[in-house]
TrEMBL record:
Keywords, comma-separated and alphabetical: Aminopeptidase, Hydrolase, Metal-binding, Metalloprotease, Protease, Zinc
Family, as annotated: Belongs to the peptidase M1 family.
Lineage: Bacteria, Bacillati, Actinomycetota, Acidimicrobiia, Acidimicrobiales
Name this protein carries in UniProt: Aminopeptidase
Organism: Candidatus Neomicrothrix parvicella RN1
UniProt cross-references to Pfam families, sorted A to Z: ERAP1_C (PF11838), Peptidase_M1 (PF01433), Peptidase_M1_N (PF17900)
C-alpha cells in the first residue's frame, strides 16, 4: 500500500459537523447521524472519508444550485457506499457529479461501544450498592474518531463541531463545549445539545455519557471549571481543581491569549488507555492522575498529578488552538506540552524543584536515544500504526529537553515572545516544525532553525568530552553510544553549550555555541568545571580524569541537578565502556554527604543496576555496602523528616526504600512492618509508600495476602496502584505466579501491562514473568490496549539470563519477538531488545571485577 493511500485528497474539505450520538449503554451499541458541510475544490462523483467498524445505514449528499441560501433549489442524491478496511475509509459514489462549491453530506450509522479503550468505548465501576455501573467515553487520538463517526480524520482537516447526545435524563452528558439545550425525546430520553466548538481537529472531539457527577463550576476569569468523577469521590477533587485554576491563569499570561474554550471539564475515567487526553474543554484522565487525597499521597504522586493537569491544559493552546499539520509533527505538541507542564508546575509549587526531578525522565530519554535503534524526534509517519509508535520518551522527554536547552540558550523572555508570536500567527490553523523556528528567529538573533534541525531531524545526541590544560578547556564531541552498539558515523551537533565553573569568588556560567571540536578559556583559579550547567543541555558529559576528581571534591558547590548528572553521566560512561565499574562505585561513595531526593533517587537506580551485576555469592556484601553508603544520609533524613520538613520527608522515604530493599537492612524492614501496621493517618504518606515497597520485597505469604486485601480495599487511586504494584515485588515464586494470574484476570486492562512490565523487571523472578507472558501472548496482546504493549515489553531490559536474552534461545526474547511482532510500536520493542543486549554485555564485562571490589569495602569481606 503506498503511503499516500492512507491520506485523504484535499479536494473535499469539511467546515462543520452537526453530529448526534445515541448510545445504548446496556446493549453496548450506539447510533449516530451527521451532517457535514464540505467545500469541493473541483467537480467529483466520489467523496472519501474515514470510518472504521461502523455500519453506514444512510448516505446522501445535497447541494444547492449556487444561488444564495434559501433562494435556489437543493438537490439531494443517495450515495452508494463502499468501505476499505486497510485505509479505514468509506467512499460515497454518486450517480451525478457534484459541482465545485459547497455541499452537505448526510450520514447515519450504527456501531458497537467497544471494550478496547479507543474510539467510543465502555468503562465500568462498582457502584455503592455493589452493582456494576457503566459509562461510555471517547478516546480519538491517534486516530480513532473514525471509530465513532465518519469524518475527515486528519489533523489539518479542521472544522467546527456541533454535538448532541441522546441519553437518560439522570446521566451526566458532556462534550467539548457548554450545554445549550436539553429537550425530551422518545423513549424517556433527552437530547442534550452543546455549543459549536471552535475550528479544531477531529482527534480533539470528545463526549462522555453515564452515571457520573461533577463538582460545582468554579469560575476562573470567565471559564467555569469542574472535575467530573464517580459518585462518592468529590472529596478527592480539590487538589486537581487548585492545579487547574492555577494553570489556566498561568498559561493565559504566558501565551498572552485567552483560554480558547467556553468551559473546562476535567474528567476522571475508571478505564483509560493513556495518562490523560487534551480534548478541548473535556480533558479526560485516568483516575490516579486526577483524583487525590494530598494527605494520603506522596509528594511524587502529587507532583505527577499536577504535572499531568498542567500538561493537558498547556495543550489547549499548543495542540488544540495551533495543531501539527500531520502526525510526524506530533513531537512538537507533546514536547512543548511537556516543557510547559514543568514551567507551570515549577510556578505552582517551587519547593518541588521540578527541574531537578526532571532528571530521571531525561535519563530515560538519554538511555533510548543512545541506542542504534533510536529515531529522530521528528519522524515520518504514514499509517495509523506509525502514529501510535510516536508516543514515547523521544517525543516527550527528549523533545522537552531540547526545548528547555533552546529556551535557556535564547533567554526565557525571548523564547516566550517567540511562542506568543507563533500562537498568534497560527491560531485555528496547522503548522510544521519550521513555523516555530521562524517565530523564534523573529524574536531572537540566533540561528534557531540551524541549531534545532540537528537535534530534531537526527537521532542520537553528543557525548561532550571536557579536558583542561591550564586555563584552556578542550571540548570534543562524538555521538554517545553504548559499548558494542554499531559504530555511528562521525558527526557533530551545534551544541548551545553552557558550562558552570567554580572559582574562589563563586560560580560562573560560560556560554558558547560549539559547532565542532572547540576550546574555551576558564579563569586560571577555577577549582572545578561542570560541562552541563544546571543540567539543561541534552548531551552527556565526560569530564577527563582530573576534572572529574575536582568535581567529586567540590560537590557541595554544584546544583542538585548537576550532582545528579555526575552520577547519571558516570553510569552512561560505564555503559559506553569509557569507565570501569570501579569508577561508578567511587562516585556512589563520594555522594554520601548529599541530601537531595533527586540525587538519591538516581543513586537508588544505580544501586539497582549494580544489583544486576553482582554475583549471588557477593550479594550479602553488596547489601552491606549499600547500607554503608546510605546510612548517614538515612539517619540525617530521619531526624529532619521528624521535624515535619516536606523535602526531608521525601528524602527520608527514598533512603528508607534504598536501605530496606536494595540494602535488605533488617532494622529497616522491621520498621517498615510496624509502619504498615500503624494508623495510616499518623504516618507520613511518603514514608508509608516506601514502607509498602520494603515489606513487599520481603513479604511472607501472609503479608502478601495482606497486601492483596489492601489493594482490593483501597479507597483512593494512588493507594490502589501502590498496593497493586507491590504485589509483584514479592520474593516468593508461588506468590509471584499467583499475582501474574491476577494481573491477567482481575486487574483492569489499563493497568495490567504496566504491572507485567514491573513483573518482568523483578530482580530474581523476571524470567518467570517472561515465560508466563509468552505462554499467553495471544490472549494478552488481544485484550490489553495496543499503546501499552511496547511499554510492557520494556520490562525485559534487565532480563539478561541466557534463557531470555540469548539470541539463539528459541523461547528467548530476540527470537520470540521477531516471530510475534506487535501491530504498532515495533521500534520500541527493538530498543528494548538492544538495551537487553547492552546490559547483557555489561554483566559479562563487569561481574567478574565487581564482587572483589565490593568485598574489599565491607567488614568481613575479602
Ligand atoms: Zn500531551
Amino acid at each position: 500500500m503506498s503511503e499516500s493511500a492512507y491520506r485523504l485528497p484535499r479536494t473535499v474539505v469539511p467546515s462543520h459537523y452537526a453530529l448526534e450520538i445515541t448510545p445504548n449503554l446496556v446493549a453496548a451499541t450506539f447510533a449516530g447521524t451527521v451532517d457535514i458541510e464540505v467545500a469541493l475544490a473541483e467537480a467529483t462523483d466520489t467523496v472519501t472519508l474515514h470510518a472504521l467498524d461502523l455500519t453506514i445505514t444512510l448516505a446522501k449528499v445535497s447541494q444547492g444550485d449556487g444561488q444564495a441560501a434559501g433562494q435556489g433549489a437543493v438537490t439531494t442524491q443517495t450515495a452508494e457506499v463502499t468501505d476499505d478496511d486497510e485505509t479505514e475509509t468509506v467512499t460515497l459514489r454518486l450517480a451525478n457529479q457534484l459541482s465545485p462549491g459547497t455541499a452537505t453530506l448526510h450520514l447515519a450509522w450504527t456501531g458497537e461501544i467497544s471494550d478496547g479503550l479507543v474510539g467510543f468505548y465502555r468503562s465500568t465501576y462498582e457502584a455503592a450498592d455493589g452493582t456494576t455501573a457503566t459509562l461510555a467515553a471517547t478516546q480519538f487520538e491517534a486516530p480513532h474518531a473514525r471509530r465513532a463517526f465518519p469524518c475527515f480524520d486528519e489533523p489539518d482537516m479542521k472544522a467546527s463541531f456541533g454535538v448532541s447526545l441522546v441519553t437518560d435524563d439522570d446521566h451526566l452528558a458532556i462534550s467539548n463545549s457548554a450545554e445549550i439545550g436539553r429537550v425530551p425525546v422518545d423513549g424517556g430520553l433527552v437530547r442534550v445539545s452543546f455549543a459549536d466548538t471552535m475550528v479544531m481537529s477531529t482527534y480533539l472531539v470528545a463526549w462522555v455519557v453515564g452515571p457520573l457527577e461533577a463538582t460545582e463550576p468554579h469560575l476562573v476569569g470567565t471559564t467555569p471549571v469542574r472535575v467530573v468523577h464517580q459518585p462518592g469521590q468529590a472529596h478527592l477533587t480539590a487538589f486537581a481543581l487548585e492545579a487547574a485554576e492555577h494553570a489556566l491563569e498561568y498559561f493565559e499570561d504566558y501565551y498572552g491569549i485567552a483560554y480558547p474554550g467556553d468551559k473546562l471539564d476535567l474528567v476522571a475515567l475508571p478505564d483509560f488507555a493513556f495518562g490523560a487526553m487534551e480534548n478541548l474543554g473535556c480533558v479526560t484522565f485516568r483516575e490516579v492522575l486526577l483524583l487525590i487525597d494530598p494527605s494520603r499521597a506522596t509528594r511524587a504522586e502529587q507532583r505527577r498529578l499536577a504535572a499531568v493537569v498542567n500538561h493537558e491544559l498547556a495543550h489547549m493552546w499548543f495542540g488544540d488552538l495551533v495543531t501539527m499539520a500531520w502526525w510526524g509533527g506530533l513531537w512538537l505538541n507533546e514536547a512543548f506540552a511537556t516543557f510547559m507542564e514543568m514551567r507551570c508546575t515549577d510556578h505552582f509549587r517551587p519547593e518541588w524543584e521540578v527541574w531537578a526531578e526532571f532528571g530521571l525522565e531525561r535519563s530515560a530519554a538519554f538511555t533510548v536515544d543512545a541506542l542504534s535503534t533510536t529515531r529522530p524526534i521528528e519522524f515520518e509517519v504514514h499509517t495509523p500504526a506509525d502514529a501510535e509508535g510516536m508516543f514515547d520518551v523521544l517525543t516527550y522527554e527528549k523533545g522537552a529537553s531540547v526545548l528547555r536547552m533552546l529556551e535557556q540558550f535564547l533567554g526565557e523572555e525571548t523564547f516566550r515572545d517567540g511562542i506568543r508570536r507563533y500562537l498568534a500567527d497560527h491560531a485555528y490553523a496547522n503548522t510544521v516544525t519550521h513555523d516555530l523556528w521562524s517565530a523564534l528567529e523573529s524574536t531572537s538573533d540566533a540561528p534557531v532553525g540551524h541549531i534545532m534541525d540537528a537535534w530534531i531531524l537526527r537521532g542520537g545526541h553528543p557525548a561532550l568530552n571536557v579536558a583542561r590544560s591550564g586555563d584552556t578547556l578542550a571540548l570534543t564531541q562524538r555521538r554517545a553510544v553504548p559499548l558494542g552498539a554499531d559504530e555511528a558515523e562521525a558527526r557533530t551537533w551545534p551544541i548551545p553549550a553552557r558550562l558552570s565553573v567554580g572559582t574562589p569568588d563563586g560560580r560562573l556560567v560560560l556560554d558558547q555555541l560549539v559547532e565542532a571540536d572547540s576550546t574555551m578559556t576558564v579563569p586560571s583559579d577555577a577549582r572545578w568545571v561542570m560541562g552541563n550547567a544546571s543540567g539543561n543541555g541534552f548531551w552527556r558529559t565526560h569530564h577527563d580524569g582530573e576534572l572529574m576528581d575536582n568535581l567529586l571534591a567540590h560537590l557541595g558547590e554544584l546544583e542538585p541537578i548537576e550532582r545528579y548528572l555526575v552520577v547519571d553521566d558516570t553510569w552512561a560512561d560505564l555503559l559506553a565502556g569509557r569507565v570501569e565499574v570501579s569508577r561508578v562505585v567511587e562516585v556512589c561513595e563520594a555522594m554520601t554527604d548529599d541530601r537531595h531526593p533527586a540525587v538519591w533517587r538516581r543513586l537508588g537506580g544505580v544501586f539497582g543496576g549494580l544489583r544486576r551485576l553482582i554475583a549471588n555469592d557477593h550479594l550479602d556484601q553488596f547489601q552491606a555496602w549499600v547500607r554503608s553508603v546510605s546510612f548517614v544520609a538515612l539517619e540525617d533524613a530521619a531526624r529532619l523528616a521528624h521535624d515535619g520538613d516536606a523535602a526531608a520527608q521525601d528524602l527520608y522515604a527514598v533512603l528508607f526504600g534504598i536501605a530496606g530493599v536494595t540494602g535488605a537492612d533488617p532494622a529497616t524492614q522491621q520498621a517498615a512492618r510496624e509502619l504498615l501496621a500503624a494508623d495510616p493517618a499518623k504516618v507520613d504518606a511518603n514514608l508509608l509508600a516506601s514502607a509498602t515497597g520494603v515489606v513487599a520485597a520481603d513479604a511472607s505469604a501472609a503479608e502478601h495476602r495482606d497486601l492483596m486485601v489492601r489493594w482490593r480495599a483501597a479507597d483512593n487511586p494512588q493507594e490502589e496502584v501502590r498496593f497493586l504494584y507491590a504485589l509483584v515485588d514479592t520474593p516468593s515464586r508461588e506468590d509471584f505466579e499467583a499475582t501474574l494470574d491476577l494481573v491477567t484476570n482481575e486487574v483492569r486492562t489499563q493497568n495490567a501491562p504496566y504491572v507485567l512490565m514491573r513483573a518482568l523487571s523483578h530482580p530474581t523472578l523476571g524470567a518467570i514473568a517472561w515465560r508466563y507472558l509468552i505462554d499467553r501472548w495471544g490472549d494478552i496482546t488481544e485484550r490489553f490496549p495496543t499503546n501499552a504493549l511496547p511499554r510492557m515489553i520494556e520490562g525485559i531490559r534487565w532480563l539478561t539470563d541466557d534463557a531470555v536474552a540469548d539470541p539463539d534461545a528459541e523461547r528467548g526474547a530476540p527470537q520470540f519477538l521477531a516471530r510475534h511482532p506487535l501491530g504498532s510500536g515495533d521500534q520500541l520493542v527493538q530498543q528494548s531488545l538492544e538495551l537487553q543486549a547492552v546490559h547483557r554485555a555489561l554483566v559479562e564485562r563487569s561481574r567478574p571485577s565487581l564482587g572483589g571490589l565490593i568485598a574489599q569495602r565491607v567488614p568481613g569481606g575479602a
